[in-house]
Design goal:
globular, 542 residues, mainly alpha, 24 helices, homodimer
Amino acid sequence: MALGLNTMLEKSETLLGSDHASVVSMNLFVALLCACIVLGHLLGKTRWMNESITALIIGSCTGIVILLISGGKSSRILVFSEDLFFIYLLPPIIFNAGFQVKKKHFFRNFMTIMLFGAIGTLISFVIISLGAIHFLEKMNIGDLTISDYLAIGAIFSATDSVCTLQVLKQEETPLLYSLVFGEGVVNDATSVVLFNAIQRFDLTHINSAIALEFAGNFFYLFILSTALGVAAGLLSAFVIKKLYFESHATNREVALMMLLAYLSYMLAELFHLSSILTVFFCGIVMSHYTWHNVTDKSKITTRHTFAALSFLAEIFIFLYVGMDALDIEKWDVVRNSPGQSIGVSSILLGLILLGRAAFVFPLSFLSNLTKSSTDERIDWKKQVTIWWAGLMRGAVSMALAYNQFTTSGHTKLLGNAIMITSTISVVLFSTVVFGLLTKPLVKHLQPPSKRLTTPISSFHEPLISSQGQSEYNIDDHPISLGMFWNTPSRAIHHYWRTFDDAVMRRIFGGRGVSERVPGSPIDTSVRLWIEDVDNKEIHIEP
Amino acid sequence: MALGLNTMLEKSETLLGSDHASVVSMNLFVALLCACIVLGHLLGKTRWMNESITALIIGSCTGIVILLISGGKSSRILVFSEDLFFIYLLPPIIFNAGFQVKKKHFFRNFMTIMLFGAIGTLISFVIISLGAIHFLEKMNIGDLTISDYLAIGAIFSATDSVCTLQVLKQEETPLLYSLVFGEGVVNDATSVVLFNAIQRFDLTHINSAIALEFAGNFFYLFILSTALGVAAGLLSAFVIKKLYFESHATNREVALMMLLAYLSYMLAELFHLSSILTVFFCGIVMSHYTWHNVTDKSKITTRHTFAALSFLAEIFIFLYVGMDALDIEKWDVVRNSPGQSIGVSSILLGLILLGRAAFVFPLSFLSNLTKSSTDERIDWKKQVTIWWAGLMRGAVSMALAYNQFTTSGHTKLLGNAIMITSTISVVLFSTVVFGLLTKPLVKHLQPPSKRLTTPISSFHEPLISSQGQSEYNIDDHPISLGMFWNTPSRAIHHYWRTFDDAVMRRIFGGRGVSERVPGSPIDTSVRLWIEDVDNKEIHIEP
């Protein structure tokens, strides 16, 4: 709850007799967060709004009020800090995403997700960079180097998985959700890796050797980051299984899971890996193994604590971006060239639309070639939804732009100021306008309920499994070599689950292997309730 | 999980390309926290150790290792910051204490707790201050003013409720627990209020007018702080009851409760009230009203999330104090006068023992006069336990001492350095030695099980109550005026519960009034399990 108000602390010497203004700001910020939750809930009943947009709007309004009160001096109560974002706010969001994602869908579409997230982002990066070089150089907006243009490509390739999550519902459109969301995570990681590579490499003269090194660097980071996340997750499973905390130890288990997840993130930072990927895979492994080794109360608590922290971090970010958008300093510099600023923002928005279209449709076509069943194919309606749902830009773009174009939050050069204000405009416009249109679009293109009402069990596999029973009981038929070539991901899935049952779950626990309730008085409906299968179906809560 | 690593952030410019050393420290600190949990669990099976002491020892050992590696330069990976302590670590601990305390016992002994916590702390403060003036002035340890001596009184009157909580068990000795723990919270608040008053008032010439103003100030703070906490708690109950979040909204409910609790703490800071008291009463009110308005999953999640956060904060503090204890700078100044430092520490320990004895025994006698049943009386064994269990000094003393005797964490003057090192010695000695002896002492003086095995229902009131049924079903007989004089607290309790049933719970919800599960499939044992009555009795978890 006290995540990252560190910027306040830098100002206040001591709270016991502390600087009044910073305590006022902290109060205001916490009160605004409460307001966002309450108003977001009330407005969320309409089909247009969601908490992100509410927070953005409340943030902007507060910004205006502060601007008026302070006589046009400042609109912010906190200075945007990348640290705040990357150290405190992003880890819970991405970890929770990994922890809650439906693994079956994620891994079944693993190849497609990687195709979209890695190759797609690269395509988008190239198109936006080239477009930026082509259009912005003509506009004469100050000294932007080749690195700056490449950075622009990376900045605007980062989709906003946070906002996407609020628009698509895992229960309603599971395939789309896992594709868009999985792509979002890989995409975030790819953008950050690209961005770091751009800052590190000397890109004034690109040749094939540097390009190759660049690619090698990328895969090295990708594989090591994933391995670290998996290792941290397995460690937590092993420790909790071996220690076998007594039944009162819910607090210890929850604390240990939190700490290990955070440790994986910080270790990735330490080794200059992609911490986003690491903590995402740590979340996946923890939900696959660790979660089954803890008490029932820890199960419920971790599910909802991680979700609540992630939810708070999301609102925090949007409230903050809204408030920061009106910061007068940035707009002061570009005041004399409003046309340029609007022009740059429009060009960037156009490039984002184009860059995304340039990989979603071709890559979907490629992906469809490998799928045999029509059910798993991405039809054109889904393609349009995927294209649209990934257009929003958010806090990752903001943080990267601040990193590239400012020195500790302040902007003086015209070119830099224009890039910052354009980033803010693009983030606000894409989140509010594209975001508002996404829900109706999804409703229109993907009429719900047909999938939802009938065979829920088809995508919620039976969850009560007795000792040692496999959880992989869908399409569990023998596999041939021919099939491997036709549907490689299914074959991999088959071998993986054999290995998982025989080796991994023996060591690290997991569903059915190390559940703590052998002959408990909890009946089936309650077990389903604890495992959070589908509230709508069970109707325990009215 | 990322609570208050702000000190790190001040150093690191940006994490994306950030200062390596600070990331290393953060990793080390998180890893040490994990180690404390795991080792604390393994060692906790013995009757001597607990997590606090484990963390202290691990902290000290790490301090030694860092000292050796850095060649005697530093033993700390984080600089002790009062902000870290008062803004991030203390609120979850105190809030959780209020949230988990058994209200029935707390309020039944309310008068005794207030007597011990307020009057007792004042007595202890006077004795330690006078003793310090008497003994320390003779020792010639540098320029200490009258304010310094009074501050010493306040610093060493603050018992360590955190450590106490780990030693006494609510289930085994409910009366003792509520007395010692309740006293600890009121005592913390009293000490902080006293300390602030000392810093604010001009105490060079004390007269009756100033003393009266001092007392008035104290009661004003006490009443307003309590009122603010109650108001925040009631607000959360009202909002959640009125909004009636749908059944999926566990995350929102949990986030809102966290935010409002934190807001109450920060508001108290804003108005210069006692934030400890505020957040404690906010916790009590939230567990009495708000907790019953949320979904079953929120119930379990809040219970354990708050406990886990509090647990983490506790370990963090002890690990930190252990690490800070070996900081070379402080010891450098007093190196030439080891005798003085040991002398001061011993005198202070003696004064603590005396100051506590001086109020526990007389006030217990006073308290016993008002009790009619022998069951509620504090016999001499209990008195000894109360005396002993409150001897530990902890993080509050450390934070206050740093505030009084250092300028932003650094000590140069001899007098100040001696006071800091003595505080550290007293904290370490009292926590480790007194702490280690407390468990055996409690076992010896309060043989367990007699109360525990037989009538559990006598202190766990029936928890499944139908619509509108009163929860106050123990000694619910009519009340006469005569009885009011004999047992005033029981009479107050009677009027309060009538009022609570008739008015408060209509508006704010509460047990039986706003439970969300009218005809749910969850049976009795599961309901008891959700409400966390007593795991040992129900045996759902093995």
